[in-house]
């Protein structure tokens, strides 16, 4: 079969000592920056871009790709241990991962994430090997109208995900959407809500808001607690998940792999949406959904698997269509351009060594990551033994450096601090920052796609019905909402009946 | 203009420099800006140069800056550090550079959007007069393309259809405040041909929207990605925005030839600029090295042969380019 010949070529490229070294360097850097809050793959690749330019093209892409999927492994660690999501995709992991840490189950949480990530990554690479050209065609069919539907679905998931009350989630999502409107209007270019501050012209930076609300908020909160209470969480138990853990999460991992792979192919999809969707799916399927948000291992395994699968399948639109689906891949695209290579439909034929070499290197990289991560988790958990005061100070410093490095703009550091205080107030008042941050990410895509759709359709809402993807999604949403409304009423009635029966018995 | 301000600077520099001869070290501190500047002028560059790119890493601007930076490094013997500062649609980078010391150690990529248009639309405290031009690195025309299955096979057919059904044809553009957006607006105002402009973010999103058939055409900044699509046939170019036909699309007419003689301005110019008042000697050092680099085969390969103008445009020419843009955009974008 052709794919095997190609893969053979790929492995012969990837196994060259130099390339092998760069896979290793890439995944190690990736894990490290994933662990350091603030220094995401975006900032790191931006910093490394000038260096790659002197490297061999294949080695450069192999290394940068390694950093990208390596950071997906690393990002989990701070989400689980400190409730600081390193990048958008791991916001969801904080929901149950941090709860597991509080229950002294940080080991299995990280263990299952590493295993899930490995499986998700591998499934996606296999998919990339065999289905890439096919899927690329599907990806372009997703236009502005479809995006509106996908984003509405995303917002729907966001509000139903919250661990607290739906009303509170809705409030937070609304604030997130409002915050996302700050900056230049995407269609007319006029400034909105910037109050004459030039730094706000480009809107708030996502990383600054997420770091503030989750990271700094959590740090402030943890400083309030006494040392004694903190000591309980430092008990470290087996990293290797128990048989029960495996049983609980095997389904989540399988579903997460497929879901992540499919979502990653969509331009603009990738990370967050895949982990969100996986979490929502697991919560829906669970026999007892109330366990979610309180340390359910499926809530960690599913999303972690999905975000790794999607970060791998996101290479399909990049390498096949020449369309980077997120900022990190846009930088990989730039790195290739610098080498005089234009990713696009002709890449597979023109430079099979790069195309298949990079894919083969991902197989190797994933194996390296799982080998590196399982024993290293023990070391990372040691972070929790450090006194809160010291750990918090250090984490805050890394957050500040990291957030500055994204745009080289000190303004972002103020944003982190101010949102940190908000985050702390939200924790105290029982508001979950998750829906806010996620709505903030989805908001701009929703607004732009909606207004593009309106421009294209000349103001007619018919476009959402004639576009097959949007029609399907809106249809399913309508059916689902009606169903859940009816079933809730029925449940309310059912709940009322035994109560009356009980009253009678007295 | 640049000359005069540079001269004024030099006379101001002269007095403290004389006084400073005796007690260089001590007084030098208070007047260090001026004394330092003169010393630095002679041995420029004697330390690494920061080159700010007002866009996020990865785009054509970064590719251009990196390619030139490594050539300038080789030629001038100092590191050129590329710093991406995308905040405020490039406005922050320009604001920072305009207020930096005009000693040649802080330079930036001056181009249509951040340098000329942004201060017209938003409240920013800089304008083109706050910069010293050095020279042009690259320029890219905007090209009108349709998909391979498009019913419009030529510019004539496309514009005829647009005239017949005003606002029916949708054309994706790279953003709301780009020269492409302005040209389409002028097409409507001056020639009464109305298409619906759909602002997108960057070439990638535009490419998807045409491949997926979500818009009828793109008015896209010409770059390697666009070229490779034209080569493999998935994009068909209808017209280019440059004043003359482009060598690499010899068969493709200009908008001017199509009967829109005014529409020759949607060309992105990537120039090197520094803060206002850079000494002439530093400008000419940079200018001549930039010229050498624009003839360097590695640089040309990296940026794309067609985008590095065969005839180098220096400081004076670049000044003129930005002044023309200013004149053109002001009535459309200008704030009251």
Automatic annotation (TrEMBL), chain A:
Q: Does the keyword Transmembrane apply?
A: yes
Every copy of the DUF112 domain together lies at 20-438
Residues annotated as transmembrane: 20-39, 109-131, 138-159, 195-216, 258-281, 318-342, 354-381, 388-405, 411-427, 434-450, 462-486
Cross-referenced InterPro entries, in alphabetical order?
A: DUF112_TM
Keywords attached to this Swiss-Prot or TrEMBL record, sorted alphabetically, are:
Membrane, Transmembrane, Transmembrane helix
Superkingdom of the source species: Bacteria
> Sorted alphabetically, which PANTHER family does this protein's record hold?
TRICARBOXYLIC TRANSPORT PROTEIN
Query: What is the name attached to this protein's record?
Result: Tripartite tricarboxylate transporter permease
């Amino acid at each position: 079969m052709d794919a095997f010949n190609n893969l053979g070529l790929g492995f012969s490229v990837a196994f060259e000592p130099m390339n092998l070294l760069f896979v290793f360097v890439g995944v190690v850097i990736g894990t490290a920056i994933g662990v350091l809050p603030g220094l995401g793959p975006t900032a790191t690749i931006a910093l490394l871009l000038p260096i790659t330019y002197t490297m061999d093209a294949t080695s450069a892409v192999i290394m940068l790709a390694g950093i990208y999927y390596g950071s997906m492994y690393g990002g989990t660690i701070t989400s689980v241990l400190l409730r600081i999501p390193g990048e958008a995709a791991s916001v969801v992991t904080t929901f149950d991962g941090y709860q597991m840490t509080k229950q002294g189950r940080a080991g299995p949480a990280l263990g299952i994430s590493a295993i899930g990530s490995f499986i998700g990554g591998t499934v996606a690479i296999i998919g990339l090997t065999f289905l890439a050209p096919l899927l690329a065609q599907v990806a372009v069919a997703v236009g502005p109208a479809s995006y509106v539907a996908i984003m509405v679905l995303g917002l729907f998931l966001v509000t139903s995900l919250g661990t607290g009350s739906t009303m509170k989630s809705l409030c937070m999502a609304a604030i997130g959407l409002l915050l996302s409107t700050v900056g230049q209007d995407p269609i007319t270019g006029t400034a909105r809500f910037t109050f004459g501050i030039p730094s706000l012209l480009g809107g708030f930076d996502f990383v600054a808001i997420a770091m503030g609300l989750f990271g700094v908020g959590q740090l402030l909160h943890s400083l309030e607690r006494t040392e004694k209470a903190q000591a309980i969480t430092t008990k470290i138990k087996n990293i290797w998940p128990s048989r029960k853990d495996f049983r609980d999460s095997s389904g989540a991992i399988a579903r997460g792999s497929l879901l992540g792979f499919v979502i990653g192919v969509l331009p603009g999809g990738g990370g967050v949406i895949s982990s969100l969707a996986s979490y929502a799916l697991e919560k829906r399927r669970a026999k007892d959904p109330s366990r979610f948000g309180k340390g359910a291992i499926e809530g960690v395994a599913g999303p972690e698997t999905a975000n790794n699968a999607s970060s791998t399948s996101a290479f399909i639109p990049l390498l096949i269509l020449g369309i980077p689906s997120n900022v990190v891949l846009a930088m990989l695209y730039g790195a290739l351009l610098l080498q005089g290579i234009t990713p696009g439909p002709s890449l597979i034929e023109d430079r099979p060594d790069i195309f298949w070499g990079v894919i083969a290197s991902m197989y190797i990289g994933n194996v390296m990551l799982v080998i590196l991560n399982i024993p290293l988790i023990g070391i990372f958990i040691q972070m929790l033994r450090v006194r809160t005061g010291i750990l918090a100070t250090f984490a805050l410093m890394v957050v500040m450096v990291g957030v500055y490095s994204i745009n080289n703009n000190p303004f972002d550091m103020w944003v982190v601090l101010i949102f940190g205080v908000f985050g702390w107030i939200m924790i105290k008042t029982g508001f979950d920052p998750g829906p806010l941050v996620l709505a903030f990410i989805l908001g701009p895509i929703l607004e732009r796609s909606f207004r593009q759709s309106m421009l294209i359709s000349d103001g007619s809402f018919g476009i959402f019905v004639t576009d097959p993807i949007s029609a399907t999604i809106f249809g399913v949403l309508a059916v689902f909402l009606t169903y859940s409304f009816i079933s809730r009423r029925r449940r309310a009635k059912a709940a009322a009946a035994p109560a009356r029966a009980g009253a009678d018995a007295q | 203009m640049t000359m005069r301000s540079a001269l004024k600077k030099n006379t101001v520099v002269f007095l403290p420099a004389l006084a400073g001869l005796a007690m260089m070290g001590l007084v030098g501190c208070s007047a260090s800006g001026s004394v330092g500047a003169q010393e630095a002028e002679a041995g420029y560059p004697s330390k690494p140069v920061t080159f700010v790119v007002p866009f996020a890493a990865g785009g054509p601007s970064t590719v251009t800056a990196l390619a030139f930076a490594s050539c300038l490094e080789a030629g001038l013997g100092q590191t050129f550090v590329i710093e991406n500062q995308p905040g405020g649609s490039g406005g922050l980078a320009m604001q920072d550079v305009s207020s930096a010391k005009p000693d040649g150690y802080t330079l930036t990529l001056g181009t249509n959007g951040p340098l000329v248009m942004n201060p017209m639309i938003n409240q920013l405290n800089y304008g083109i007069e706050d910069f010293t031009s050095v020279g042009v690195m690259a320029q890219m025309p905007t090209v009108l393309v349709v998909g391979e299955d498009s019913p419009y096979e030529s510019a004539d057919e496309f514009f005829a259809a647009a005239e017949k059904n005003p606002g029916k044809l949708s054309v994706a553009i790279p953003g709301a405040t780009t020269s492409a957006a302005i040209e389409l607006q002028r097409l409507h105002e001056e020639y009464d041909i109305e298409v619906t402009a759909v602002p997108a973010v960057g070439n990638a999103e535009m490419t998807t929207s045409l491949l997926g058939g979500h818009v009828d055409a793109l008015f896209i900044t010409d770059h390697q990605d666009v070229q490779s699509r034209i080569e493999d046939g998935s994009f068909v170019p209808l017209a280019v925005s440059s004043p003359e036909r482009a060598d690499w699309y010899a068969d493709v007419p200009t908008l001017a030839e199509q009967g829109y003689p005014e529409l020759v301005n949607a060309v992105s110019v990537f120039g090197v600029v520094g803060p206002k008042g850079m000494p002439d000697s530093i400008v000419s050092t940079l200018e001549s090295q930039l010229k050498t680099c624009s003839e360097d085969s590695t640089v040309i390969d990296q940026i794309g042969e067609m985008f590095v103008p065969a005839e180098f445009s220096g400081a004076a020419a670049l000044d003129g380019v930005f002044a023309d843009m200013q004149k053109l955009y002001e009535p459309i974008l200008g704030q009251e």
